[in-house]
UniProtKB/TrEMBL annotation:
Catalysed reaction equations from the record: D-glucosamine 6-phosphate + acetyl-CoA = N-acetyl-D-glucosamine 6-phosphate + CoA + H(+)
Family the UniProt entry places it in: Belongs to the acetyltransferase family. GNA1 subfamily.
Keywords tagged on the record: Acyltransferase, Transferase
Classification lineage: Eukaryota, Metazoa, Ecdysozoa, Nematoda, Chromadorea
UniProt record, GO biological process: UDP-N-acetylglucosamine biosynthetic process
Pfam family, one: Acetyltransf_1
Protein name: Glucosamine 6-phosphate N-acetyltransferase
Domain N-acetyltransferase per the UniProt entry, residue ranges: 106-239
Origin superkingdom: Eukaryota
Naturally occurring in which organism (per UniProt): Enterobius vermicularis
EC number: 2.3.1.4
Length: 239
């Protein structure tokens, strides 16, 4: 669940594979269409998949139109074992989104932040500090009450999200919702957050980090080591 689109649910179709002996029989298309209907039944506002150029026609025929101008970018890390499982940093029932200890590691502290800027976990009190207004500069937020926010210091001027999923025995990170307040965009906060989240993903022991970006930002993200990996195919449901 995300704080955008009125606490909307975002879906991804991954690891879609059909045995070579059964290809050409419509099994892959049936699976993709089934995933769309399942997403619709679950109330998901958008479902997407990453797709290499050679499979764009297949994805479009399965109900996933190409999200023109959007790309999937990926960065692989050298194999690294974090000291703890990534899940140990999350705090169910806490007033903060995750344990602050990960931010105190030396490699993160060595990344020099812009003046008067500090990095911390999202807190339940941030509903009163402009967090949703900041997200509104990125996308549609919708009506999110303070109670909704809580169930799920100072002014918030930038935000980013790193969430982790598990593929086999490895963890993959998704870097999303990077936004900097319009009044602070000359402080290179976006650059700082990109470096910060990349280092944080590495320290968590993730084997890869993935993001979605517009064509005009490909070069900017490539400067941080990301490479274009696929097309973004997206289906948005009528809400």
């Amino acid at each position: 669940m995300k704080f955008i689109h009125t606490l909307g649910l975002r879906g991804r179709v991954t690891d879609l594979v059909v045995d070579t002996k059964s290809r050409g029989c419509g099994v892959g298309t049936a699976l993709a269409k089934y995933a769309l209907e399942l997403a619709r039944d679950l109330g998901i506002y958008k479902v997407s998949m990453a797709c290499v150029d050679s499979l764009v026609t297949f994805a479009e025929g399965s109900g996933f139109p190409k999200d023109v101008g959007n790309n999937v970018m990926s960065q692989q890390f050298e194999f690294y074992h974090g000291d703890e499982e990534p899940s140990c940093y999350f705090k169910p029932g806490s007033t903060e989104l995750f344990r602050n200890e990960i931010l105190h590691q030396e490699d993160l502290l060595n990344l020099e932040a812009p003046p008067n800027i500090s990095i911390r976990p999202l807190h339940v009190d941030d509903w009163d500090k402009g967090y949703l207004s900041l997200l509104g500069q990125l996308t549609v937020v919708g009506n999110v009450s303070k109670t909704d926010f809580e169930e799920r210091t100072k002014e918030i001027v930038a935000s980013g999200t790193l969430y982790v999923d598990k593929h086999g025995c490895e963890h993959c990170g998704h870097f999303e919702d990077l936004v900097v307040d319009a009044d602070f965009r000359r402080m290179r906060l976006g650059r700082y957050l990109c470096l910060y989240f990349r280092k944080m993903a590495y320290l968590l022991g993730l084997h890869r980090i993935v993001l979605e970006c517009r064509d005009e930002l490909l070069g900017w993200y490539e400067s941080f080591g990301y490479k274009r990996a696929a097309n973004l195919m997206t289906y948005k449901f009528d809400m």
